[in-house]
Protein backbone atom coordinates (compact mmCIF):
# COMPACT_ATOMS: atom_id res chain seq x y z
CA UNK A 1 0.00 0.00 0.00
CA UNK A 2 2.80 2.35 0.82
CA UNK A 3 4.40 1.69 -2.61
CA UNK A 4 1.13 2.43 -4.38
CA UNK A 5 0.79 5.64 -2.45
CA UNK A 6 4.24 6.72 -3.52
CA UNK A 7 3.52 5.86 -7.13
CA UNK A 8 0.35 7.90 -7.08
CA UNK A 9 2.28 10.80 -5.62
CA UNK A 10 5.08 10.65 -8.25
CA UNK A 11 2.92 9.64 -11.22
CA UNK A 12 2.27 13.19 -12.53
CA UNK A 13 5.96 13.98 -12.41
CA UNK A 14 6.85 10.75 -14.22
CA UNK A 15 4.18 11.34 -16.87
CA UNK A 16 5.32 14.91 -17.42
CA UNK A 17 8.93 13.77 -17.78
CA UNK A 18 7.93 11.13 -20.32
CA UNK A 19 5.73 13.49 -22.32
CA UNK A 20 8.26 16.31 -22.41
CA UNK A 21 10.63 14.68 -24.97
CA UNK A 22 7.62 13.61 -27.00
CA UNK A 23 6.31 17.19 -27.03
CA UNK A 24 9.75 18.52 -27.95
CA UNK A 25 10.05 16.01 -30.78
CA UNK A 26 6.55 16.86 -31.99
CA UNK A 27 7.31 20.56 -31.94
CA UNK A 28 10.52 20.02 -33.88
CA UNK A 29 8.75 18.04 -36.60
CA UNK A 30 5.76 20.37 -36.92
CA UNK A 31 7.67 23.42 -38.15
CA UNK A 32 9.44 23.77 -41.50
CA UNK A 33 10.87 26.68 -43.52
CA UNK A 34 10.71 27.19 -47.27
CA UNK A 35 13.48 29.30 -48.83
CA UNK A 36 12.63 32.26 -51.14
CA UNK A 37 13.63 30.39 -54.31
CA UNK A 38 11.76 27.21 -53.38
CA UNK A 39 8.26 25.76 -53.21
CA UNK A 40 7.38 22.93 -50.82
CA UNK A 41 5.25 19.90 -51.62
CA UNK A 42 3.47 18.49 -48.55
CA UNK A 43 2.48 14.79 -48.51
CA UNK A 44 0.31 13.06 -45.93
CA UNK A 45 0.78 9.31 -45.75
CA UNK A 46 2.34 9.50 -49.22
CA UNK A 47 -0.46 11.50 -50.87
CA UNK A 48 0.15 15.10 -51.98
CA UNK A 49 -2.18 17.46 -50.16
CA UNK A 50 -0.81 20.93 -50.98
CA UNK A 51 2.12 23.12 -51.97
CA UNK A 52 3.39 25.98 -49.82
CA UNK A 53 5.16 29.22 -50.65
CA UNK A 54 8.37 30.56 -49.08
CA UNK A 55 8.22 31.23 -45.34
CA UNK A 56 7.53 29.47 -42.04
CA UNK A 57 4.84 26.75 -42.07
CA UNK A 58 3.42 23.97 -39.89
CA UNK A 59 2.56 20.35 -40.55
CA UNK A 60 1.52 17.24 -38.67
CA UNK A 61 4.39 15.72 -36.68
CA UNK A 62 5.98 12.29 -36.43
CA UNK A 63 6.23 11.75 -40.18
CA UNK A 64 2.51 12.01 -40.80
CA UNK A 65 3.19 14.96 -43.09
CA UNK A 66 6.39 14.97 -45.14
CA UNK A 67 7.80 17.99 -46.95
CA UNK A 68 9.92 18.05 -50.12
CA UNK A 69 11.29 21.40 -51.30
CA UNK A 70 11.87 22.13 -54.98
CA UNK A 71 13.87 25.11 -56.33
CA UNK A 72 11.21 26.55 -58.66
CA UNK A 73 12.71 30.04 -59.03
CA UNK A 74 16.24 28.93 -59.85
CA UNK A 75 17.32 28.66 -63.49
CA UNK A 76 18.97 25.28 -63.94
CA UNK A 77 20.98 24.09 -66.92
CA UNK A 78 22.02 20.96 -68.76
CA UNK A 79 25.24 21.01 -70.79
CA UNK A 80 25.81 19.00 -73.95
CA UNK A 81 29.20 18.37 -75.53
CA UNK A 82 31.11 19.96 -72.65
CA UNK A 83 31.01 20.29 -68.86
CA UNK A 84 31.70 23.12 -66.44
CA UNK A 85 34.69 22.12 -64.33
CA UNK A 86 33.53 23.46 -60.96
CA UNK A 87 30.53 25.35 -59.68
CA UNK A 88 30.82 28.51 -57.61
CA UNK A 89 34.13 29.51 -59.23
CA UNK A 90 35.04 31.57 -62.32
CA UNK A 91 33.76 29.80 -65.39
CA UNK A 92 36.15 27.04 -66.34
CA UNK A 93 35.34 24.15 -68.64
CA UNK A 94 36.58 20.61 -68.43
CA UNK A 95 39.11 19.49 -71.03
CA UNK A 96 37.26 16.24 -71.49
CA UNK A 97 35.39 15.88 -74.75
CA UNK A 98 31.96 14.30 -75.26
CA UNK A 99 31.81 13.32 -78.94
CA UNK A 100 28.80 11.05 -78.38
CA UNK A 101 26.75 14.13 -77.55
CA UNK A 102 28.25 16.80 -79.81
CA UNK A 103 29.04 15.12 -83.14
CA UNK A 104 26.08 15.38 -85.53
CA UNK A 105 25.33 14.89 -89.21
CA UNK A 106 24.08 17.88 -91.19
CA UNK A 107 21.65 17.83 -94.09
CA UNK A 108 24.47 17.76 -96.67
CA UNK A 109 26.16 14.81 -94.87
CA UNK A 110 28.85 16.87 -93.13
CA UNK A 111 29.89 16.13 -89.55
CA UNK A 112 29.45 19.12 -87.23
CA UNK A 113 30.60 19.44 -83.61
CA UNK A 114 27.73 21.19 -81.79
CA UNK A 115 27.88 22.20 -78.11
CA UNK A 116 24.82 23.72 -76.47
CA UNK A 117 23.19 24.52 -73.14
CA UNK A 118 19.54 24.01 -72.15
CA UNK A 119 18.43 26.41 -69.42
CA UNK A 120 15.19 25.47 -67.70
CA UNK A 121 13.08 26.16 -64.64
CA UNK A 122 10.76 23.90 -62.63
CA UNK A 123 7.33 25.44 -63.22
CA UNK A 124 5.18 22.76 -61.49
CA UNK A 125 6.90 21.01 -58.55
CA UNK A 126 4.20 18.32 -58.19
CA UNK A 127 4.50 17.22 -61.83
CA UNK A 128 8.29 17.43 -61.65
CA UNK A 129 8.42 15.11 -58.62
CA UNK A 130 5.69 12.58 -59.36
CA UNK A 131 4.64 12.60 -63.04
CA UNK A 132 7.87 11.03 -64.28
CA UNK A 133 10.58 8.98 -62.65
CA UNK A 134 13.60 10.87 -64.06
CA UNK A 135 12.47 14.18 -65.61
CA UNK A 136 16.02 15.55 -65.87
CA UNK A 137 17.21 12.46 -67.75
CA UNK A 138 14.18 12.71 -70.01
CA UNK A 139 15.05 16.34 -70.69
CA UNK A 140 18.59 15.39 -71.71
CA UNK A 141 17.44 12.60 -74.00
CA UNK A 142 14.79 14.77 -75.66
CA UNK A 143 17.19 17.69 -76.07
CA UNK A 144 19.80 15.55 -77.80
CA UNK A 145 17.22 13.88 -80.04
CA UNK A 146 15.58 17.15 -81.12
CA UNK A 147 18.91 18.92 -81.68
CA UNK A 148 20.15 16.11 -83.91
CA UNK A 149 16.98 16.20 -86.00
CA UNK A 150 16.99 20.00 -86.36
CA UNK A 151 20.68 20.05 -87.28
CA UNK A 152 20.04 17.29 -89.81
CA UNK A 153 17.48 19.51 -91.55
CA UNK A 154 20.05 22.24 -92.30
CA UNK A 155 23.12 22.47 -94.49
CA UNK A 156 26.52 22.45 -92.85
CA UNK A 157 27.36 25.96 -94.08
CA UNK A 158 24.10 27.31 -92.62
CA UNK A 159 24.72 25.67 -89.25
CA UNK A 160 28.18 27.21 -89.04
CA UNK A 161 27.08 30.70 -90.09
CA UNK A 162 23.54 32.02 -90.35
CA UNK A 163 21.15 29.38 -88.97
CA UNK A 164 22.31 29.21 -85.34
CA UNK A 165 19.54 31.43 -83.96
CA UNK A 166 16.89 29.60 -85.98
CA UNK A 167 18.17 26.20 -84.80
CA UNK A 168 18.12 27.27 -81.14
CA UNK A 169 14.60 28.72 -81.43
CA UNK A 170 13.19 25.68 -83.23
CA UNK A 171 14.81 23.29 -80.76
CA UNK A 172 13.43 25.17 -77.76
CA UNK A 173 9.87 25.13 -79.14
CA UNK A 174 9.95 21.39 -79.87
CA UNK A 175 11.49 20.46 -76.50
CA UNK A 176 8.92 22.56 -74.67
CA UNK A 177 6.10 20.88 -76.58
CA UNK A 178 7.45 17.46 -75.55
CA UNK A 179 7.83 18.54 -71.91
CA UNK A 180 4.22 19.73 -71.87
CA UNK A 181 3.05 16.50 -73.49
CA UNK A 182 4.84 14.36 -70.87
CA UNK A 183 3.70 16.70 -68.04
CA UNK A 184 7.18 16.98 -66.53
CA UNK A 185 6.53 20.43 -65.02
CA UNK A 186 9.65 21.82 -66.74
CA UNK A 187 9.69 25.20 -68.50
CA UNK A 188 12.49 25.71 -71.05
CA UNK A 189 13.92 29.21 -70.59
CA UNK A 190 16.37 29.26 -73.48
CA UNK A 191 18.73 27.16 -75.57
CA UNK A 192 22.13 28.58 -76.43
CA UNK A 193 24.55 27.15 -78.98
CA UNK A 194 27.97 27.54 -77.39
CA UNK A 195 30.44 26.23 -79.94
CA UNK A 196 29.60 25.08 -83.48
CA UNK A 197 32.70 23.98 -85.40
CA UNK A 198 33.83 21.20 -87.70
CA UNK A 199 35.63 18.24 -86.09
CA UNK A 200 39.33 18.67 -85.37
CA UNK A 201 40.29 16.20 -88.10
CA UNK A 202 38.86 18.41 -90.87
CA UNK A 203 39.56 21.80 -89.30
CA UNK A 204 42.46 22.72 -91.67
CA UNK A 205 40.39 21.88 -94.76
CA UNK A 206 37.47 23.84 -93.36
CA UNK A 207 39.71 26.87 -92.78
CA UNK A 208 40.87 26.70 -96.38
CA UNK A 209 37.28 26.55 -97.58
CA UNK A 210 36.43 29.58 -95.45
CA UNK A 211 39.41 31.50 -96.81
CA UNK A 212 38.35 30.67 -100.37
CA UNK A 213 34.79 31.81 -99.66
CA UNK A 214 36.03 35.04 -98.12
CA UNK A 215 38.25 35.65 -101.13
CA UNK A 216 35.31 34.99 -103.42
CA UNK A 217 33.15 37.44 -101.47
CA UNK A 218 35.92 40.03 -101.60
CA UNK A 219 36.27 39.71 -105.38
CA UNK A 220 32.49 39.86 -105.81
CA UNK A 221 32.37 43.01 -103.71
CA UNK A 222 35.18 44.62 -105.68
CA UNK A 223 33.51 43.72 -108.99
CA UNK A 224 30.22 45.11 -107.72
CA UNK A 225 31.97 48.30 -106.65
CA UNK A 226 33.58 48.72 -110.07
CA UNK A 227 30.26 48.03 -111.78
CA UNK A 228 28.52 50.58 -109.58
CA UNK A 229 31.15 53.15 -110.57
CA UNK A 230 31.39 52.33 -114.29
CA UNK A 231 27.69 51.95 -115.08
CA UNK A 232 26.60 55.40 -113.78
CA UNK A 233 29.62 56.99 -115.51
CA UNK A 234 28.72 55.33 -118.83
CA UNK A 235 25.09 56.31 -118.43
CA UNK A 236 26.13 59.90 -117.72
CA UNK A 237 28.34 60.04 -120.80
CA UNK A 238 25.56 58.53 -122.90
CA UNK A 239 23.06 61.05 -121.59
CA UNK A 240 25.52 63.88 -122.26
CA UNK A 241 26.09 62.68 -125.85
CA UNK A 242 22.35 62.36 -126.39
CA UNK A 243 21.75 65.85 -124.97
CA UNK A 244 24.49 67.33 -127.20
CA UNK A 245 23.01 65.59 -130.25
CA UNK A 246 19.55 66.79 -129.38
CA UNK A 247 20.85 70.34 -128.91
CA UNK A 248 22.73 70.21 -132.20
CA UNK A 249 19.63 68.86 -133.97
CA UNK A 250 17.48 71.60 -132.44
CA UNK A 251 20.06 74.23 -133.45
CA UNK A 252 20.25 73.00 -137.03
CA UNK A 253 16.49 72.70 -137.26
CA UNK A 254 15.92 76.20 -135.91
CA UNK A 255 18.63 77.57 -138.19
CA UNK A 256 17.05 75.91 -141.21
CA UNK A 257 13.62 77.16 -140.21
CA UNK A 258 15.04 80.69 -139.82
CA UNK A 259 16.73 80.55 -143.21
CA UNK A 260 13.53 79.29 -144.79
CA UNK A 261 11.51 82.06 -143.15
CA UNK A 262 14.06 84.68 -144.27
CA UNK A 263 13.98 83.32 -147.81
CA UNK A 264 10.17 83.46 -147.84
CA UNK A 265 10.20 87.06 -146.62
CA UNK A 266 12.77 88.04 -149.26
CA UNK A 267 10.74 86.20 -151.89
CA UNK A 268 7.62 88.13 -150.92
CA UNK A 269 9.49 91.45 -151.16
CA UNK A 270 11.05 90.42 -154.48
CA UNK A 271 7.66 89.59 -155.92
CA UNK A 272 6.44 93.01 -154.82
CA UNK A 273 9.45 95.12 -156.03
CA UNK A 274 11.93 93.00 -158.02
CA UNK A 275 14.37 95.80 -159.00
CA UNK A 276 14.63 97.35 -155.57
CA UNK A 277 15.00 94.00 -153.91
CA UNK A 278 17.63 92.83 -156.37
CA UNK A 279 19.68 96.01 -155.87
CA UNK A 280 19.41 95.81 -152.09
CA UNK A 281 20.52 92.20 -152.16
CA UNK A 282 23.43 93.13 -154.42
CA UNK A 283 24.57 95.88 -152.09
CA UNK A 284 24.24 93.64 -149.05
CA UNK A 285 26.34 91.00 -150.77
CA UNK A 286 29.02 93.58 -151.60
CA UNK A 287 29.05 94.86 -148.01
CA UNK A 288 29.65 91.33 -146.88
CA UNK A 289 32.24 90.31 -149.48
CA UNK A 290 34.34 93.44 -150.01
CA UNK A 291 35.71 93.64 -146.40
CA UNK A 292 37.20 90.22 -146.97
CA UNK A 293 38.80 91.12 -150.35
CA UNK A 294 41.42 93.63 -149.12
CA UNK A 295 42.73 96.63 -151.09
CA UNK A 296 41.38 97.32 -154.60
CA UNK A 297 43.97 98.76 -156.98
CA UNK A 298 43.24 100.34 -160.36
CA UNK A 299 46.15 100.50 -162.83
CA UNK A 300 45.98 103.03 -165.64
CA UNK A 301 47.72 102.61 -168.95
CA UNK A 302 51.04 104.21 -169.19
CA UNK A 303 51.53 104.48 -165.45
CA UNK A 304 53.87 102.25 -163.58
CA UNK A 305 52.73 102.83 -160.02
CA UNK A 306 49.34 101.53 -158.96
CA UNK A 307 46.89 104.05 -157.68
CA UNK A 308 45.05 103.06 -154.50
CA UNK A 309 41.35 103.51 -155.07
CA UNK A 310 39.68 102.06 -152.03
CA UNK A 311 41.24 101.59 -148.61
CA UNK A 312 38.63 99.25 -147.23
CA UNK A 313 40.79 97.82 -144.43
CA UNK A 314 41.76 101.14 -142.96
CA UNK A 315 40.01 101.95 -139.74
CA UNK A 316 38.96 98.34 -139.23
CA UNK A 317 39.88 96.32 -136.17
CA UNK A 318 42.17 93.48 -137.19
CA UNK A 319 40.65 90.06 -136.78
CA UNK A 320 42.16 87.52 -134.37
CA UNK A 321 43.72 84.56 -136.04
CA UNK A 322 42.94 81.26 -134.46
CA UNK A 323 46.01 79.39 -133.38
Give the gist of this structure.
The protein is α+β, with helices and mostly antiparallel strands and 323 residues long. The protein contains 8 helices and 11 strands.
From the structure above, extract its key features.
11 strands, alpha+beta, single chain, 323 residues, three-stranded antiparallel sheet, Tetrahydropterin Synthase, Chain A, four-stranded antiparallel sheet, 8 helices
List strands and helices in order, with pairings:
Elements: H1 2-30, E1 31-34, E2 39-44, E3 47-52, E4 55-58, E5 65-70, E6 76-80, H2 99-102, E7 103-105, E8 111-122, H3 125-130, H4 135-152, H5 156-160, H6 164-182, E9 186-197, H7 203-272, H8 274-293, E10 296-298, E11 307-310
Helix pairs in contact: 4-6, 7-8
Structural features, described:
Helix 4 (135-152) runs antiparallel to helix 6 (164-182). The model has no long low-confidence stretch (mean pLDDT 83). The chain has 323 residues and is α+β, with helices and mostly antiparallel strands. It is 53% helix and 20% strand. It has helices spanning 2-30, 99-102, 125-130, 135-152, 156-160, 164-182, 203-272, 274-293, and strands spanning 31-34, 39-44, 47-52, 55-58, 65-70, 76-80, 103-105, 111-122, 186-197, 296-298, 307-310. The chain is built from 8 helices and 11 strands. Strand 2 (39-44) and strand 3 form a beta hairpin. Strands 6, 7, 8 and 9 form a 4-stranded antiparallel sheet that branches. The chain has a 3-stranded antiparallel sheet with strand order 3-2-5, with no helix packed on it. Strands 1-4 form a two-stranded antiparallel sheet. Among the domains are: 32-71, no CATH class; 76-198, 2-Layer Sandwich (Tetrahydropterin Synthase, Chain A).
